[in-house]
Fold this sequence. Notes:
The protein is α+β, with helices and mostly antiparallel strands. The protein is built from nine helices and 13 strands. The chain has a six-stranded mixed beta sheet, sandwiched between helices.
Amino acid sequence: MASSTPLIMRIMALSINTARRAGVIIRDVLKQGDLGIVDKGQNDPQTEADRSAERCIIASLSKKFPSIKIIGEEGGTDLNVCEDWLVNELNESFLEHSCPAAWQDAQPEDFVIWVDPLDGTAEYTQGFVDHVTVLIGIAIKNSAVGGIIHQPFYQQASGELGRTIWGLKGLGTGGFTPVDPPKDEFIITTTRSHSNALHQKAVDVFNASKVIKVGGAGYKVLQLLEGKAHAYVFATPGCKKWDTCAPEAVLEANGGTLTNINGDHYEYHANVEHVNRRGVLASVGSNHKELVVKIPLEVRQTVGNKL
Length: 307
């Protein structure tokens, strides 16, 4: 691919194909039966699929873009991977799109790539594989700009496994058909494993017609994109920048909003704290500020101050 193609487009195009390859690795580990589980903390397991998928992603991206900062959930990564795990081909169908003017001149030092190789690990180990996603988020100058959400276990109508959704601010989204949520209801999606009293108070205040509890930030944002929920409420500091960078970029490329529970966007520069201390609030439509105000002031002032 000619070097004249803007860097953001080349990164996105390689990330799409790399996420798919990581998805195959995740399915292969599950087939083999031994997940190689290591407990990193309460409700925070790590498996061989997490480790191997991250090696695949970071080795592939690092080889093609050696001067770009990449931060992965699983920390230090051995880049000496087998050739079969190295992805070199860019996604040609993505490169048919035109680069938004805002990102055409972005330089390597402007970028940070945030990688969650297997979002929803607890659900993966428990058999809820539809919750599992591979997340590759691309930040430019502190802001989440591009993202890939790959679902390794999504069943296509053709019978093929896997679906890759992408979003780039200023360009839009691809890989799926967005659906508006029902107009006569208000549905919330939220955590199935990290709740507490303050979080529950934030959820309850919306008096939702339905509350969908699922795992993984990527899968929760997919509930919004597919019209299954109006808002994603997570009033606890339980996720990290690699959980939200890609989902934020994809959701906002589609017209939604993802912030902390005070309505402020997170920063994604290389030296930022990894923990999202003030939770997550995501929504579709134009009423995001109204949702922020609805969360009790006690919750908004307290969440994040207890760490």
